[in-house]
C-alpha cells in the first residue's frame, strides 16, 4: 500500500487513487503529424528509479496529480496538481500561509 | 515422554475445567491452556504425521514455529486444517483431529512410505514423473497431472470444508503514531515509552496474554503486571490474539485479529476475525526470537522439542513435560530451563557441545561437555539418545543415555520476517550465529531478542531505546548478544559413515541428505535449493529450518553462510484465511449494487432484473405465464406498433459547462460540436488517443455554455475520468467545468409511433411537442402535470419515433405514475434490456459488445461521421495504415440461411471450408426479430458486407449450437432508410 499525500485531502491510501500514466509525456497538438502522436502514445521508457507519473484522486477530490515516484522502492518524492493554474494557486496560498 | 500436570503452578485457571475432544476421545484441560499444553498434560504424544514419510510427530515447540503438532480444529463447515496446536487456545467443546494419517495418527498406513524413503528424496516427483524418458518435459504433462492427484491425496495436509464459510469477517482500519509488534519485555517497554512521550500507540500481540517471555517466569509476574497496568494507563491501544502478518509501503501494516476463534459459542454479531490495515508513523518490531533445533538422526521423534518450550509448558501451563530429561545445548539459554525443570522434580542432564566449564548452575543438574545428540532412540516415543563426542574434526559415537524427553537448543533466530518484507536484508552475525535484522531507511526499529539481544534486562532497555528512536528523542542503540559465553554453532550432528534421517525442515520432511543431494545435482543457489527440496515452503516458512539448511548448503559449497545468502521473507508471516481477505465483500456484497431512481417502481410493475455492470436494470416485464423469449418479443413488437417505456436512468450523464464547453466537446468528439445550436442534441463518437472508439452517446445543448453529455452505462465512469484528465493535464487553458450528474436524473426512453401522444397527454399547459416544435434531435425543457420540471430530447436508439424524458431523480416515480397510464391506454408496454437489445440490433446500432476497444470508427460503419474539417482526439492515429485496411473486420448483420434456424452470440464466422482456426469474423449479439420474423445478429467480418454478399458463411459454435449456415447482410436490418424515426 503506497500512501499518497494529496495536496487537498492529505495522506491517503493509494487505493483511493487511479494511476494515469507517464507524467513526462507532452502530448502534441491535435493537428500534429501522426508520427508525433505515435511517439507520444506508444513510446515509453521502462525506468528503474524515479519517474514522473500522473495519478487521479478518483475516490477523493478527483484532482489529477503529477507525482515523482521511485519504481524500485515506491518512495514518492513529490506530489503536485497536474493543472499548472491549480498548482500555482496552491503554491501562493501556501506561501501566504507561512 | 511421560508428561504430567503438576499440582500447582502455571497461569492456567485450575478452577475452570475445560473439556475437549481429541480424535474422538474426551479429554480435559483448564482455561488458559493451549490445545498443545492440554494434550501434553493428558499424555498424548503422537499428534500428527509428517508430510512425505508419515512419521509420527509430537509437540516440538510452544509457539508459532510449531512443526509437529499441526492439527485440524472444528468440524463440519467450521473445520480448519493445519492449525498449530501450540497457538490454539483451549475452549470448552473444542474438537480437534489429527491429519495426514489414515486411519489415525497413532496407526497410520502411510508410514510405509518411510520404508521407501530413498525414493522420496529431493526432486523425486519431478525426476520420476516429468523428466525421465519417455515422459520428456512437456510431453509427459498429462501423465504428471494424473500422478500429481495421487501424490496429493497421499500427502494431503488436512482438508478444509467444501461448504460455504458460515462465519463472517470484518475489515478494519487503524492509524497510529507508533505501532509496536510484540508485547514482551521489549515491546511493553517500547509501547510505554512512546505513549508517555505523547504518541498515539498501537500494541499488537499474537498471544492472548500480554507479557511474552515474562509469562514463562513466575518470578517476573509482579513486574509484568505493573508494566501492563502502566501501558494501559498510558492510553496504549492494545490488540491481543492479533498477528502483524505483513509490513507494506509507507508504514502500512496488515494485522489479523482472531476475535472468536477461542470461544465455544461466540456472539453471532461478532466477526470471526478482523483484517486490519494500519497506517503507522513508525513501527517497532519486538517480535522476539525462535529457538532452533539441530539436525541429527530421528530428531523429529515425539519427545524431542526445543529447550525453551519445556520452560513454557512448565512455568506457564503447569505441565512437566518429562521426568528423565536430557538437554542438548550449544549456548547459555538452556541452563535456566534446566534449573526450573530440576526444581519441578525432573531428573535433568545437560550436554553442552562446548568444551569449557560453565559457571553458575545448580549442583543437582549434571553437565557434560563436548557432547551432542547423534540419534534419538525409541519409536514412536523417545526412550534414549545416542551421544556423539566432538573430535575437533567431526563427531564420533560416544555411548547411549536413557531419557523420556530430549530438549534441544541450537541457538536463536531473531524474527526478522517483518522488516524483510520491506526489503531490509537480514545480515548474518557470526558471533551470535544468527541473522540480525537488516538496515532500512524506513522508520522501522527492532527491540529485544528480535534484534539479537538476549538478557531480559537488555531487552527492556532496548525497548525504551527503540521507542526513543521512533519518537526522535534519543538515538541510543543496544548491541546484540549478552550471554556470558559465546554460542558455538552446531547445525547438524552425524557420524561420517552413517546415512541419516536428520530433519532440517520438519514440515516438508527435508533432511540434511536432501540438501547435500540437491547440491550434488547442481542446485547451488539458495533460491533453487528452496524450490528443489521444498525447504521452508510449508506454513513453517523457514522459521525452524532455514538457518540449518543454509548452514548445510554453505558447508557443501565450502562457503560461509553470508556468502550463500538467505531468502527474502514475504507476507504473510502466519496464514491468513481467505475469508478474512474477503471480509464483508461476499455474496450480494461482493460488489456494489446501483439502483436507478425507478428501481422500486420497476419491481412493482413486474420487472425481472438483470445486472449491467454494477447496475440492476429491468430485463423484461413478463405478463402472466410468459417466458423471457415471449416477453421480449412482445415488448419489441409493441414498441414498433404503439409505444414502450424503458428505464434508461443508468446512462452516464455529465454536465459540461463553461465558456469553452463547445470547443472542448469539439476536440473530444470525432464529429463536429462547435456549431450545435442551443436546443439540439447530437449523437457523437469519441475516440481514444490511439484512434480506437472509446464511447458513444448524445450531447444536448441546453444553453450557450451548458451541455448535457450522455455516455453508455458501462463507460460512464471512464468518460468522466477522461474529461477530467484532458481538462487538468492537457488543456488547462480551457474554461470548462465537468460534473457527473448521472444520479441526479431519472430518465426514460419513450419509443414507438404513439410516443408523442403518450407524452403530450401528461404535459402541463398543453405544451407543443409536434414534429415542427420538437423535430428529430430537438431538446426542450417542459413541465409535466403536477409541475414537474423535465428535459425532453427527441432521440432514438430503437429506430422509432422516440423521446428521452429526464426529471430530477426524486420525481422519477411521479413521472412514471403519469406516463405509464398514458402509454398503457394507447396499448403500450414497459420494456426491458432484452427488448432494447432487439430494437437496436434490428437497427444495427452499436453498443458495448461492438465497441470493445479493438474497433475503429470505420470498423463500426460510422467512419462517415468523423469530421474531415477539424482535428480531434484520435484523428491522427486513426489514420495508421493498418487501421485503414479494407480487409479489417467491419460491422455486419447476420441472417440464418434457413430462417427457422437460430445461432448464438459468440459464434465464429467462417467460410464453409474453414471452420477451424480463428475464422473470418464473429457474432457480438443476436435476437429474435419480431419485425423480420426470424433470428438475426450483428457482428464483424473481415471486409464487411461487400466482401461476403451472396457467399455462404458458417456461424460456428462447436461447444454449443454447432454450425449454422448464415448470410451476411447490412447491419441496418429494419427500416434502413430511417423513415420511422423522423415521422
Ligand atoms: Zn484529494
TrEMBL record, chain A:
<protein>
    <submittedName>
        <fullName>Sarcosine oxidase subunit delta</fullName>
    </submittedName>
</protein>
<dbReference type="InterPro" id="IPR006279">
    <property type="entry name" value="SoxD"/>
</dbReference>
<dbReference type="InterPro" id="IPR038561">
    <property type="entry name" value="SoxD_sf"/>
</dbReference>
<dbReference type="GO" id="GO:0008115">
    <property type="term" value="F:sarcosine oxidase activity"/>
</dbReference>
<dbReference type="Pfam" id="PF04267">
    <property type="entry name" value="SoxD"/>
</dbReference>
<dbReference type="GO" id="GO:0046653">
    <property type="term" value="P:tetrahydrofolate metabolic process"/>
</dbReference>
TrEMBL record, chain B:
<dbReference type="InterPro" id="IPR006277">
    <property type="entry name" value="Sarcosine_oxidase_asu"/>
</dbReference>
<dbReference type="Pfam" id="PF17806">
    <property type="entry name" value="SO_alpha_A3"/>
</dbReference>
<dbReference type="Pfam" id="PF01571">
    <property type="entry name" value="GCV_T"/>
</dbReference>
<dbReference type="Pfam" id="PF13510">
    <property type="entry name" value="Fer2_4"/>
</dbReference>
<dbReference type="Pfam" id="PF12831">
    <property type="entry name" value="FAD_oxidored"/>
</dbReference>
<protein>
    <submittedName>
        <fullName>Sarcosine oxidase subunit alpha</fullName>
    </submittedName>
</protein>
<feature type="domain" description="SoxA A3">
    <location>
        <begin position="500"/>
        <end position="584"/>
    </location>
</feature>
<keyword id="KW-0560">Oxidoreductase</keyword>
<dbReference type="InterPro" id="IPR006222">
    <property type="entry name" value="GCVT_N"/>
</dbReference>
<comment type="similarity">
    <text>Belongs to the GcvT family.</text>
</comment>
<dbReference type="GO" id="GO:0046653">
    <property type="term" value="P:tetrahydrofolate metabolic process"/>
</dbReference>
<dbReference type="InterPro" id="IPR027266">
    <property type="entry name" value="TrmE/GcvT-like"/>
</dbReference>
<dbReference type="InterPro" id="IPR028896">
    <property type="entry name" value="GcvT/YgfZ/DmdA"/>
</dbReference>
<dbReference type="InterPro" id="IPR042204">
    <property type="entry name" value="2Fe-2S-bd_N"/>
</dbReference>
<dbReference type="InterPro" id="IPR029043">
    <property type="entry name" value="GcvT/YgfZ_C"/>
</dbReference>
<dbReference type="InterPro" id="IPR036188">
    <property type="entry name" value="FAD/NAD-bd_sf"/>
</dbReference>
<dbReference type="GO" id="GO:0008115">
    <property type="term" value="F:sarcosine oxidase activity"/>
</dbReference>
<feature type="domain" description="GCVT N-terminal">
    <location>
        <begin position="598"/>
        <end position="870"/>
    </location>
</feature>
<dbReference type="InterPro" id="IPR041117">
    <property type="entry name" value="SoxA_A3"/>
</dbReference>
